[in-house]
């Protein structure tokens, strides 16, 4: 029961989602940063920038890769079922999210509601991606 | 004249490969000093050390008598590189970049500098879309807008057409004569060094071979290697 109390909680779901998304964000961001010309770091340092300003500028130059990492991670998280079901338990009003609700309604045979929830999920994803991709513009 | 930089017993290595070995070198405030030498002589490395973006493997560089100058002091020094890497932004954003990071936004000054390098018509254009000569002028503008006390120039006109080269040379001359900016010009073009500098040094294989007043350096070199370099007899 003690373990269940620790696990069946929204914070456990957030932790699980973070663990799932982090490698993707780190990997894609690192790859994007590596593609920035290494000489740029030296040249912007010569303009009297601090270390944090150099890092911020490099991230900004790699923004298409960084935005791709965020979009991919968001897509992975919002469509995730297994981990949130496992650590959240799909409790109504507490740990039930769109994906686990869709699974539940499908199992109950209420395909109409499941499809409607799927539509909401799809719309949310499209709207979020639209705004995230706008960040890609300089 | 006041000494601005004092280098003593500088040694620098990259991955165990020796690239710089200078026993002593002094740069005075307000001078236009040219370092000439073939490619791979260590000239660009010297500029990186003088800009404090790299530290020497051994020895010390004092700027305004400070062995480890603060950010405020190092911000008085800036470099224009031979192959400038610009931000994927507009010309104007590239030029004002350094000022913005210092919280010193000055639109009037940015406009003036962009006009001075002849790029007013391209201020809103993407820097990536411009030619090599125009990109070099953006790099110069991005340095000049900071009002540097010391301007380090690494082959600023290499591979440029005569018009762009002449424009950049006239700006270098103005900066030194009108504003008193200390300029260290690294070039393999001995004619450019002769036209612009008051003092010239030759670097070969990481060593400073000879330094002298421009006239003496070109007309009465003390070192045989300098004579060969100046006469175009040195094969490298």
Stretches with pLDDT under 50, minimum 5 residues of chain B: none
Major β-sheet profile of chain A: none
Q: Assess the beta-strand content of chain B as a share of residues.
A: 25-35%
Number of helices of chain B: 9
Give the N-terminus to C-terminus distance of chain A in angstroms: 52 Å
* Overall outline of chain A: elongated
Instruction: Give the overall pLDDT of chain A as a whole number.
Output: 91
Characterise the protein shown here.
The complex is a heterodimer of chains A (138) and B (236). Chain A has 138 residues and is an all-alpha fold. Chain A has eight helices and no strands. Chain A has helices at 2-7, 10-34, 38-45, 51-61, 63-78, 82-88, 98-108, 111-134. In chain A, α2 (10-34) packs antiparallel against α5 (63-78). In chain B, the strands form two sheets. Chain B has a six-stranded mixed beta sheet, with helices on both faces. In chain B, strands 2-1-4 form a three-stranded antiparallel beta sheet, covered by helices on one side. Chain B has a domain at 87-147. With 236 residues, chain B is of the alpha/beta class. In chain B, α3 (91-101) runs parallel beside α5 (132-144) and α4 (107-116) crosses α5. In chain B, β8 (199-204) and β9 (207-213) form a beta hairpin. The mean pLDDT of chain B is 93. Chains A and B meet through α3 and α4 of A and β5 and α3 of B.
């Amino acid at each position: 029961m003690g373990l269940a109390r620790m696990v069946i909680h929204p914070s456990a779901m957030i932790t699980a989602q973070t663990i799932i998304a982090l490698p993707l964000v780190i990997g894609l961001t690192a790859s994007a940063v590596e593609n920035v010309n290494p000489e740029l770091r030296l040249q912007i340092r010569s303009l009297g920038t601090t270390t944090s300003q150099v890092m911020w500028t490099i991230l900004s130059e790699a923004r298409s890769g960084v935005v791709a990492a965020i979009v991919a991670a968001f897509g992975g998280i919002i469509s995730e079922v297994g981990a949130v079901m496992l650590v959240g338990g799909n409790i109504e009003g507490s740990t039930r999210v769109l994906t686990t609700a869709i699974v539940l309604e499908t199992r109950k045979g209420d395909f109409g509601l499941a499809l409607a929830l799927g539509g909401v999920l799809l719309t949310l994803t499209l709207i979020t991606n639209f705004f995230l991709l706008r960040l890609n513009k300089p | 004249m006041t000494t601005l930089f004092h280098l003593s017993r500088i040694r620098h290595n990259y991955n165990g490969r020796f690239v710089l070995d200078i026993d002593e070198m002094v740069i005075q405030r307000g001078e236009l000093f040219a370092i000439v030498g073939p490619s791979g002589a260590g000239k660009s490395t010297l500029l990186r050390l003088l800009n404090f973006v790299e530290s020497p493997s051994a020895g010390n560089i004092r700027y305004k008598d400070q062995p480890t100058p603060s950010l405020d002091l190092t911000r008085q020094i800036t470099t224009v590189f031979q192959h400038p890497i610009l931000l994927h932004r507009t010309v104007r954003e590239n030029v004002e970049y350094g000022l913005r990071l210092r919280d010193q936004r000055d639109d009037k000054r940015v406009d003036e500098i962009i006009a001075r390098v002849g790029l007013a018509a391209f201020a809103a254009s993407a820097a990536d879309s411009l030619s090599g000569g125009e990109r070099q002028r953006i790099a110069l503008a991005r340095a000049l807008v900071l009002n540097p006390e010391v301007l380090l120039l690494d082959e600023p006109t290499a591979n440029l057409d005569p018009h762009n080269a002449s424009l950049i040379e006239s700006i270098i001359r103005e900066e030194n004569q009108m504003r008193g900016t200390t300029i260290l010009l690294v070039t393999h073009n001995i004619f450019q060094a002769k036209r612009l500098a008051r003092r010239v040094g030759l670097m070969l294989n990481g060593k400073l071979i000879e330094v002298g007043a421009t006239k003496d350096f070109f007309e009465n070199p003390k070192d045989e290697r300098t004579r060969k370099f100046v006469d175009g007899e040195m094969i490298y």
